[in-house]
Amino acid sequence: xRGWSAVAAAIYTGFTIFGSPCVYRGxxxxxxxxxxxxxxxxxxxxxxxxxxxxAMVLWSGGVSAAEEWPGLPFAEVRAYAWPVDKTKGxxxxxxxxxxxxxxxxxxxxxxxxxxxxxxxQAAVTGDHAEHGLMRCYSPxxxxxxxxxxxxxxxxxEICFDCVGSATEPPTAAKxxxxxxxxxxxxxxxxxxxxxxxxxxxxxFFKSMKRNTVR
Length: 214
What we know:
With 214 residues, the protein is α+β, with helices and mostly antiparallel strands. It has helices at 2-17, 38-64, 114-124, 178-187, 198-208; strands spanning 20-24, 27-31, 76-81, 94-95, 99-100, 110-111, 141-146, 152-159, 164-168.
């Protein structure tokens, strides 16, 4: 949204400084005003062209910003799951340095397809329905983004039981699409915390959308 706001502000400034909309053969167009002086008319035309190019740069950068997370080059994404072990006391599964907690079920990870990566990115960015939150946080799932050298550059850590998550780098999205995230784990034949299947989790998540903090 910040990108669109910048474009709107730039266009408004252009209207104010350089010209205003006019009608040409039934079409609304924007053109710099004519002063009657050839030199000034040419100057205004040059300034208008430069303004239009500047607005296009703002538009291209702003609109794509929401699609760029994690904003770092990556070559692949892998999904991981951890066993439900209450003795762990709700500890994190992504440790400092983006290392996996040692009791991970699938140490090599499950590689996501390009379509699954797009759905993952969409689930943790953009606008999603508000849902209730629980005060616990005991993650058992994660996605890690790796560069071409197999080094981790970003992650999404997920607690399906408490409907909570952590991302690095942080995303601007206040709410995440946990149903979409859960579906990816089901497709990869990995567990989702303590949930036995996607249908039961989706039923729970749907009820959370009608509640507030628990």
